[in-house]
Amino acid sequence: MRTLKYIIPIWLSLVFYAVAAFVAGPSGVNAYRQLEEEKEKQEKNINVLKQTSLALEGEKEALIYDEDTISVYARNLGYGESGERFVRIVGLGGTLKQPAKQAGEVYAYNEPLYKDDKTIRIIALAIGAAALFIIALADVILFIKRL
Asked: Taking the model in full, what pTM does it have?
């Protein structure tokens, strides 16, 4: 039994390493949760881009096939048909120009935060060494008291 207690620090290090790697390691639960959040953000961004694409596709089709849409766009740009006369009112600032529509946003993902495997190993070894030191110190103190 006396030598068996010296195996406890090894098991303590292994248990700490296993739990820490499972929770905070590169393939751990926290990194997985962060990747899931990033995936949801990416999917939302993809849905927004799809909706924008459908809207722009509809406008493109309207501009190709619908003459009324073309004339509305041309009037907003200040063009008219032949024979039309324009009346410009001073002080209104000219024609109302539609702002250019954006095609979408670029989304940059965030890297998941995790503890490096080497760091977890070093901490586990330090915990094991500390436990071994405490057990050895207790044995030395008991040995000295017996003398």
From this structure: 0.64
